[in-house]
Amino acid sequence: MEDQKHTAESIMELINSLPIMERIKLHDLYKGVQTASSDMEEYLTEQRFSGGRVCPICGGTHVQRNGKRKNGAQKFICKDCGKTFSIRKNTIFNGTRKSLSVWREYMSCMAEGLTIDQSAERCGITHYTSFIWRHKILDALGECSRDTELSGIVEADETFMPLSFKGDRSLFSKGEVERQARVRGGENHKRGLSDELVCIPCAIDRKGNAVSRVAKLGKCSTKAVREVLGGHVNHEATLCTDEEASYRKFAKENGNALVQIKGGKGTVKGIYHIQHLNAYHSNLKNFIGQFKGISSKYLNNYLVWNNEVERRKNGFAEKAVAVLQQVASAIFEETCSALFLRPAVPLLVKNQS
Ligand SMILES: [Zn+2]
């Protein structure tokens, strides 16, 4: 037999072929592996320099080792721009004084869906640090999920969440929403959906991939569906929805075969139904509910996070771990102040459409 070297992909294939209970067992074993800080450092170095040593500041390729920091982290110097940097530069770990093993533990807490305080306690960090880390990780996760592609049978429908300004004292945010409400006029009264609700179009496929995002206030629209699902649904996919016209229009535009489920949410047409999505919606509400009032400002981050927790629940744990690793090595330049300066309600669709 040929001496074959395993890759992450080949092992993944192997894992995916295991029965579900074996996969859950494997996941628990994996969780027990403590990742040392130096391992994370090494992992980051491998990821970052996989295509050769490139400077994260100027993009130059003349990068050399340049001694070590007090904490043992390897320093590099770029001969093109003359700057020194560590492997943490422009990642979510930039500027952190904590060991990367603490971050690794923190990501595990998130994958398990723990709250800010529960995670802070387990990792020995403050509530504030826990908040910042959570959103740094989720922002990076959001970036990584920009290329999520749904294929095969894709179930789609929107859900609604109450508008919340929790923790946001800016008057501008309230004015912003009131203006939106005026522009929209009385259209929403038709279905009794008030502007106090944010509309979140969602779609999932049968491989555990999901897309969801805050689109607008009140009733759903074709534009809202297009803004959220556009670019994420493979043209070959079969879209499964209820009878709403906005999905019919989207499917036509996107070139998808469409199966609209008539006669209520429980209806099944063979393999075509939206029951996975109904479960996704109710899980999402439970997930959001446990955090006791999430500000609309951060809702998108929680949607992204819920998608990873969902994957684990549905036996796609390996995929969730892989995503978190991707987050660790992703280029990330956002600062803490940018985190707080985002809009109070991140709407994609600004007025009646
Ligand atoms: Zn440089």
> Low-confidence segments, ≥5 residues, pLDDT <50?
181-191
CATH class of the largest domain: Alpha Beta
**Separation, N- and C-terminal Cα atoms:** 62 Å
Taking all residues together, what is the mean pLDDT? 81
Strand content bin? 5-15%
CATH topology of the largest domain: Nucleotidyltransferase, domain 5
- Summed up, the helix count is 13
Q: How would you classify the quaternary structure?
A: single chain
Query: Which cofactor or ligand species appear?
Result: zinc ion
- Number of structural domains: 2
Radius of gyration: 22 Å
Largest β sheet strand count, sense and barrel closure: 6 strands, mixed
**CATH-level-2 architecture of the largest domain:** 2-Layer Sandwich
Structural class: alpha+beta
Overall geometry: globular
Please bin the fraction of helical residues.
40-55%
Number of strands: 9
The H-and-E topology, N to C, reads as HHHEEEHHHEHEEEHEHEHHHH
Report on the structure:
The structure is a single chain. The protein has 353 residues and is α+β, with helices and mostly antiparallel strands. The protein folds into two domains: 25-89, no CATH class; 146-340, Nucleotidyltransferase, domain 5 (2-Layer Sandwich). 43% of the residues lie in helices and 13% in strands. The chain has 13 helices and nine strands. The protein has helices spanning 8-16, 20-32, 37-48, 100-111, 116-123, 127-144, 171-184, 222-229, 245-254, 275-289, 299-313, 317-329, 336-340, and strands spanning 63-68, 74-78, 84-86, 153-162, 197-205, 210-212, 216-217, 238-241, 257-260. Strands 4, 5, 6, 7, 8 and 9 form a six-stranded mixed beta sheet that branches. The protein has a three-stranded antiparallel beta sheet with strand order 1-2-3, with no helix packed on it. β2 (74-78) and β3 form a beta hairpin. α4 (100-111) runs antiparallel to α5, α6 crosses α11 (299-313) and α11 (299-313) crosses α12 (317-329). The structure holds zinc ion (ZN).
